[in-house]
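Section 3.1: Structural characterization of target chains.
Under the original work plan, the team committed to producing a structural model for every single-chain target entering the pipeline before any wet-lab resources were allocated. The record below documents one such target. The sequence was received from the expression subgroup and is listed exactly as submitted; it comprises 205 residues.
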Amino acid sequence: MKITGMRNLFSFPGWTVDRVDLSPISSNVWLIRDGRAKLHCPHCGMVMTKNREEPRIALDLPMGVCVVVRLHYQAIQGRCRACDTYSTIHPEMISNNELVTWRFRKMVSRLARFMPLNHIGEFLGISASTAWRYDRSVLEKEVPAPCLDGLRVLLIDEKQVHSGHNYVTVVINGETGELLFMAEGKKGESLNSFFDSMTDEKNQK
C-alpha cells in the first residue's frame, strides 16, 4: 500500500519509513535506518561502528481515529573507538528510558493544562503516573528558570495537594504572579532553600 506523503509525517533524521499498517484502532509504522546515515557518538561526535541491533517499539502521536500509533525500529548499539564507549542510537528524541517520541510527550503536557492526568491516561491509553512523568519531563526541559532579579513583593502561602496533611509551600512574585518556588511542607524550613538561592543583597530587598 502506497500513501503519498507518509514519510513527511514520520520524518526522523537518519531513518526512513519502510511500511505502514493502518487499522481503525491502531497504526503501526516500521522505520529502517537510512543506509547513507552514519552513526555518530553522542559523547564526542566521532563515527561509531555498529555492534548489534535490538527491536524496539515507541509510542507516537495519534493519527486520525487511531489513538495508538506505534513506531517499530531497530535500536542500534554502536561502539566509539575514540572515547571507548558504547551508545544506543534511537530515532531523534526517543530515549532509551522512555520509549515514546518527544512530540507525544509534548502533547501530553499540553493536555495537562486542561485535563486531569487520569483523563489524559484514558484518552491516550497510558497510566496517570506515566502522563505525570511525561508532563514533568517537558516542563523541566522547556520552562525557563524563574527570574529572581528586581523582586520587591513576595506572596507566600501553603497549599494542600493531597488528602490528609500533605502540603507544599509556594512563593509567588506579588507584582507579576510568576511562580518562583515550591517545596514540600508548610513550615519555615521549607523556605530556606529559596532564600539560600538568592544573594544577601536580594534578600535584603
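The chain has a mean pLDDT of 87.
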